[in-house]
Amino acid sequence: MDLEHLGESLARVRATSPLVHSITNYVTANDCANALLACGASPIMSDDAAEVADITSICGGLVLNIGTLNQRSIEGMRVAGARSAELDHPIVVDPVGAGASALRTRIATELVDTLPVTVVRGNMSEIKAIAGAAASTRGVDAGPDDAITRDNLESSAEFARELAARLHAIIAITGAIDIVADETRVRAITNGVAMMSSITGTGCMLSCLVGAHVIASFDERLDAVVSAVACMGIAGEVARARMDALDGSGSFRIYLIDAICNMDAPTLDRRARVEVL
Amino acid sequence: MDLEHLGESLARVRATSPLVHSITNYVTANDCANALLACGASPIMSDDAAEVADITSICGGLVLNIGTLNQRSIEGMRVAGARSAELDHPIVVDPVGAGASALRTRIATELVDTLPVTVVRGNMSEIKAIAGAAASTRGVDAGPDDAITRDNLESSAEFARELAARLHAIIAITGAIDIVADETRVRAITNGVAMMSSITGTGCMLSCLVGAHVIASFDERLDAVVSAVACMGIAGEVARARMDALDGSGSFRIYLIDAICNMDAPTLDRRARVEVL
Amino acid sequence: MDLEHLGESLARVRATSPLVHSITNYVTANDCANALLACGASPIMSDDAAEVADITSICGGLVLNIGTLNQRSIEGMRVAGARSAELDHPIVVDPVGAGASALRTRIATELVDTLPVTVVRGNMSEIKAIAGAAASTRGVDAGPDDAITRDNLESSAEFARELAARLHAIIAITGAIDIVADETRVRAITNGVAMMSSITGTGCMLSCLVGAHVIASFDERLDAVVSAVACMGIAGEVARARMDALDGSGSFRIYLIDAICNMDAPTLDRRARVEVL
Description:
Three copies of one chain form a homotrimer.
Chain A: H1 7-16, E1 19-23, H2 29-39, E2 42-45, H3 52-57, E3 61-65, H4 71-86, E4 91-94, H5 102-114, E5 119-122, H6 124-131, H7 153-167, E6 170-173, E7 178-181, E8 186-189, H8 202-216, H9 221-242, H10 249-262, H11 265-271, E9 274-276
Parallel strand pairs in A: 1-2, 1-3, 3-4, 4-5, 5-6
Antiparallel strand pairs in A: 6-7, 7-8, 8-9
């Protein structure tokens, strides 16, 4: 598998239908479950410490999303993370709103510091908060000073690569331009449309898709993450193109899940815009 | 009311608009509430032990769904169940993911053993877990060995009937073929489409519809459950037929709720495929 | 700004994109977040006492919705409310289901009695429960005896104005006719369609829109509330007009968010039906 064949990552998800355990926020949990089903995976949501070890044991991997974090789900994340680590399962961390509260920053940092995390996926403000860098978070959105642009692409890429090396994890920073980095390689993905920030949950859904792809193609996990990111961006483009004059963000959200559902490997290969940095 | 007049069950739901108290998971709670409204009932969601007795007292019945089970909702289910029992309200149990964790199996078993449950609705793996039989659960989906087919229909029907006798409850096992059984009677319903397993929540929504139908027609509750199951299956067929080339699971989910909303008694009578086993 | 220029309130929301902290129920949290984004605001949901003071501090205002109330969210509401009060942030209270349980009535009453609430938005049964008046609540819906009609409009308006004076808050009572009152002024808004009560969450979404409008136009907050109420009603009309024969409540819900997304100030000004009482 290489960058010419991102579609293979999607094909593997559909062929293996990985079970993905998500501990996630209640705002976008339904979209996350439906996005996982749309891409060919199977979702299980469970956050109580009394059962998460059982649940994660029957799954292929774990996605930890800290939106609407609470004392129960924090304990659930710790127990599930420890069990996932024992089982060598891929773990994806989505640090929703890291930087927006001391609790979120502390728990996100704890998760990436104590668990053998495979991927961290967030916007630049959230990733900066985890890195201990000054961030300009605007709640759960990236602050305006944290936009990834052509002008700062090189320094953003280097920041991602350095953090990947420090955390021994793939770092996926999504925005107008998406960056995916491991310790030695950095990719930029330029798929996607501005409309994606007009609905809640695109980031949360993407983190789940990343989980599904990484479980299905663990040995080529950098490409698997790139594939998931490109897939979501292309789905956004397809959904946007379908909108008519009366459609707005409500229909766009439905069309986005439709487009994930109807995405096939050749389309993903043909439309993905990936640069090697 | 008999099997020729399933539509009467739906008509009674619309005529009486039963208030249904649901203690349910946060993944599909919105779909459950909207499905209840679409079928003519009124939803109330409430899971805290400090208020569930009050809430269930003003309702016509209770639906307990153990997805995203947690210590708070478990306590809420116990208190609400006890109060519902005192009031002789119908109680529906949906053992989401029973078999997938020891906690879910234990709580599902506790609920059906300690409460005067009217209906248990799940997939075959979940129902087997409750029955203490060996199941091949795949998370919240039935395992492949647990599919109901023409080949095992007779033995599946007998299993359902025996469990119904043991639990003094109607057992509804849904899959490619649906089975509804009480101590002496078994029905098979063959409505529905495969697409229904491409979205999360069809089972959860169905359990809520079952609750609404059973409240509205308690004296003919076997037929009421059959009516709810057929109604959901036909809604799936209507939704599937409406999909165009760009539509996927996102639109299907919306069309499904539309079809529940637009279902009428004559359509239900005409399209229901029910066999007496 | 005056009643001829309600659109200005919407324009200010879009120009300033206020961050709105919502502590809300898990049934409609997704719709609330998407409605806020659709009207031009930014949502943050967070309910744990350990972080709500941080979260609310970076926001422009707070919306407290007591659906699916629980011990954790109650504590979160108290802490967030106290911090919001210190910061002089607008606070909107949505007493979902007040009157349906002693807990909801008590907490709703506590919130409006102890916090410097800017707006209380509910149906007539919920508002009566807060006022300590006899109400005919039907769960989370207004009881039939609590409908606002032409016949009782004058007495309903006087009830709202008196409660506004007592609570030093704007009272918004929504139904077939909506009433918005402060201590001296009362407005009636007659936009909207019956279909809005066929989906869950229109009230919850409206309370969030009210929050966004009041943050953006605090000095003209009565008009801001009227603007949000009219905006939601017009969105309902637009969504209803768009429905075809196969569409039902599922599509209506999507079209409603589309219509909020596509609403512009001239449309709001032209279509708003507001009476000075």
